[in-house]
Design goal:
Low-confidence stretches: 1-11
Subcellular location: Cell membrane
Domain ABC transmembrane type-1: 43-323
Number of strands: 10
Organism: Actinoplanes sandaracinus
Mean pLDDT: 83
Helix content: 55-70%
Largest sheet: 6 strands, mixed
Distance between the termini: 53 Å
Number of domains: 3
Shape: elongated
Protein name: ABC transporter ATP-binding protein
Keywords: ATP-binding, Membrane, Nucleotide-binding, Transmembrane, Transmembrane helix
């Protein structure tokens, strides 16, 4: 898949190949920081760079102090000569301390703002992509890595600024060392390079392992939830699944631990080898310094400053190496964030060049040659379906499990884009209408509904969230769904939190949740109401109330009903029978019974279950 191809390219990218993309990532991170808080970003940048300059002044002042103190002449004269440099050193130290305070203050305010902006941008994308993006596990893997990358934005910004400050210090130290002797600079570079390269190489290997472990981490996250959350606790105990789930954890975590142990060995070997080489080279620096001093290549007055300059140069090179490694590591994680946003763009709904018109009330809905193919299936879920539904009709989609009913309804609702064919609203393709305005005219009650952890009132109000909360409308919708009396029996009525994991929260049964979901669908009183198995968990009384409300829409609003309880569709204006993704029968209940086809067979099988055994035998 294209997601996996992108992952493989990043896994196989060499160390220097990754560095090539760093400038673009740095610019993007700085742009996010600037957009989050311009003032604090400016303060952090200016203070960090100024601190690097102050460090340089401090080094130069230290050198001047030492030169003055080790010069020839009476001690009082040497001390007086060193006083200006000492004053400069004190000022530089004080200013650097103040800049550090300013940087820390600004970063404390900048960090949460940057994190919020980066995370919101991620969620703006994940909540906008089409549903078919979530059909691919590679999308979930990329999203998991992008979540980590959003946290790396501020670290990358700070790392870049610290790196620039280190470069400023390094430039000053370089000048100081070259003035003493050019060979010292070469020796210092040789002493620092192996350790720096080893750190970068180890970081790259670590990140490569991180990429390849995405699916394993996500699997562990699922297992954590299964073993520690209330939703799965009952079945885990009733089926004795504790040992089974722990065994799965041991297998997945064992594999992950083995990978991490191998990574630790490899990183230790790499960094240790780099440290040994750099240590030997550092010793060579001081040997070279001693040789230069003994041979008279360095003036005696500068002897003391040589040691200070060499140590300062080592610190500057180490800082630059460390910050480069940090930028490299954070940049790789941030790259996952940026790359996810780029790739997810292919799944965002297309924006028309011109603002499309807003649809009027539904007069006719036409489904023409509609088909849908899931990416991981060989056969289409829906194939060549053509129907026309007129305003005010109540139509039913029936058929066995997997016949394509829910997928067809999802396309009509605009939740999925057809692979083939088109859907027309009043003769115009759905894509030609304003998407938000069209969505406002459609209400959907899903079979796999989510149990939102909000109050009962909010759960129903979400059916028309763009309008002000109106308790009277909410209660009216709940009444249609047989939910009103049930909600009043809750400890706080409509203000009861429907999540037991919080204080004063309450659990609902499957049937109670189904009433809440149906109430959400009724709230909007939309032109088109799509109800997918709205009564599968309802008791007979609640089911009767619900279908009376559905029949009350007949002739006034359009309803598409999906259900396996065929007794509830006998009053439908038309019934469409699906089988293996195709429309195989169409007609009223009477017409389909008389036709003696698939619908008649399914209806008879279900009706037999409601007859006493003797009556069923006589009927046979």
């Amino acid at each position: 898949m294209w997601w996996e191809q992108g992952l493989r390219a990043r896994v196989d990218a060499g160390l220097f190949g990754v560095f090539a993309g760093m400038p673009r990532l740095v610019v993007e991170a700085l742009r996010i920081s600037w957009a989050a808080d311009r003032l604090r970003t400016t303060i952090v940048a200016a203070a960090t760079l100024a601190a690097g300059v102050m460090a340089t002044f401090g080094l130069l002042a230290t050198q001047r102090v030492l030169v003055a103190l080790f010069a020839a002449g009476p001690t009082p004269d040497r001390v007086r000569a060193a006083l200006p440099a000492l004053a400069l050193l004190a000022v530089a130290t004080a200013v650097r301390g103040g800049l550090g305070i300013a940087t820390g203050y600004a970063m404390n305010g900048l960090t949460p703002r940057v994190n919020q902006r980066a995370e919101r941008r991620l969620f703006e994308t994940t909540t906008a992509v089409r549903l078919d993006a979530f059909d691919q596990d590679s999308f979930a893997d990329s999203m998991e890595r992008a979540s980590r990358g959003s946290d790396s934005v501020i670290d990358l910004v700070q790392g870049v600024l610290n790196l620039l400050a280190g470069v400023v210090s390094l430039c000053a130290v370089t000048v100081a060392v070259v003035v003493i002797h050019p060979l010292l600079l070469v020796a210092l570079a040789v002493a620092t390079a192996p350790n720096g390269y080893a750190a970068l190489r180890a970081g790259h290997v670590k990140f490569r392992t991180y990429l390849e472990s995405s699916a394993r981490r996500r699997r562990l996250w699922v297992l954590h939830r299964l073993m520690a959350e209330r939703v799965s606790a009952s079945e885990l105990r009733s089926y004795g699944l504790r040992g089974f789930v722990l065994g799965l954890y041991d297998r997945v975590m064992g594999a992950q631990t083995a990978v991490e142990m191998a990574l630790a060995r490899r990183m230790t070997t790499t960094t240790s080898l780099g440290a040994v080489i750099s240590g030997l080279a550092s010793a060579g620096v001081y040997v070279l310094l001693g040789v230069l001093l003994l041979n008279g290549r360095i003036p005696l007055a500068a002897a003391a400053t040589c040691v200070v300059a060499v140590q300062a140069a080592q610190r500057a090179l180490t800082q630059v190496t460390f910050q480069t490694d940090r930028v490299f590591a954070d940049g790789q994680h941030f790259n996952e964030y940026v790359a996810f946003l780029d790739r997810a763009g292919a799944y965002l709904p297309r924006r028309p060049e011109q603002a499309p018109p807003r649809p009027g009330p539904l007069r006719e809905l036409t489904v023409r040659g509609l088909g849908y193919h899931y990416p991981d299936r060989e056969t289409p879920a829906v194939e060549d379906v053509t129907v026309t539904i007129r305003a005010g009709e109540t139509v039913a989609l029936v058929g066995e499990n997997g016949s394509g009913k829910s997928t067809l309804a999802a396309m009509i609702a605009g939740l999925r884009d057809p692979s083939t064919g088109e859907i027309l609203w009043n003769g115009r393709p759905q894509a030609g209408w304003d998407a938000a305005a069209l969505g406002a005219r459609i209400s959907v009650v899903l079979q796999e509904h989510h149990k939102w952890p909000f109050t009962a009132a909010t759960n129903i109000a979400m059916g028309d969230i763009d309008t002000p909360l109106d308790r009277a409308r909410i209660e009216a919708a709940a009444t249609l769904a047989a939910a009103h009396d049930m909600i009043l029996e809750l400890p706080y009525g409509y203000d009861t939190l429907l999540d037991r994991t919080f204080a004063d929260g309450q659990d609902l049964s499957g049937g109670q949740w189904q009433r809440i979901t149906a109430g959400r669908g009724f709230l909007r009183d939309a032109d088109l109401l799509i109800m997918d198995e709205p009564s599968s968990a309802l008791d007979p009384r609640a089911e009767d109330t619900l279908f009376q409300a559905i029949r009350g829409r007949q002739g006034r609003r359009t309803t598409i009903l999906i259900t396996h309880r065929l007794a509830n569709v006998v009053h439908a204006d038309r019934i469409f029978v699906m089988h293996q993704g195709r429309l195989v029968e169409e007609g009223t209940h009477r017409e389909l019974i008389e036709a003696g086809g698939r619908y008649q067979e399914l209806f008879s099988l279900q009706a037999a279950g409601y007859q006493p055994p003797s009556a069923a035998g006589e009927a046979a």
